[in-house]
Amino acid sequence: MPARLHPVSESFQAALARVDLSKYIDQIQEELRRAIADIGPGRTRGEVEAIQARVQELIRRQSQELAKEVGFLGNQAMVFMLSNSIISTAWVAFSLRREASDLSKSPEDRLGVLEMLDSLSSALADVIQQGTNYGDRYAGPAVEGKAAEGASKKPET
Fold it and tell me: Alpha helix locations (H) across the chain?
């Protein structure tokens, strides 16, 4: 069963409009601060991986909370990935805006980050379109064997 909203009468966009994503962003920022204080600034591969693991665990918990808050139902993997992508996208947009506004950065660096932020929406639309196109290649009901097969090989083009 795909992910869906409850109640079904509410649109996806309206459901998300009720959510204050800033609380999730603030939690990630705080976890990053704590992780850097506990682990180190991320100068070594081990430090980077340990910081990432802490943030990933937080986003896993946040995804469950967001799914409940919005009312996502259905396929648990899809609900998790959808919630995770919403939180991750909000944090990336926040971080890019913050970087673009940082006057300690050169004007060229700020402009580059601002251009990335401006193109984020169309880049994500392209990602969605690629996923949709790939999904179109699998007509009919999803079957365990077909899903596993699809994960291991690309369909012929």
Answer: 12-17, 22-39, 45-70, 76-100, 107-136, 144-152
Q: Which of 83, 84, 77, 68 is nearest to 2 (CA)?
A: 77
Does 106 fall in a domain? yes
- Dihedrals phi, psi of 156, to nearest 5 degrees: -70, 145
**Predicted pLDDT at 12:** 82
Residue 140 lies in a domain: yes
Among residues of the chain, what percentage have pLDDT more than 90?
69
pLDDT bracket for residue 148 (50, 70, 90)? very low
Is residue 156 in some structural domain? yes
Round to whole Å and give the CA distance between 155 and 157. 6
Q: What is the DSSP letter of 155?
A: P
What does the alpha-carbon distance between residue 89 and residue 147 come to, in Å, rounded to a whole number?
A: 26
> Which residues, other chains included, contact 64 with Cβ-Cβ below 8 Å and sequence gap of 6+?
80, 83
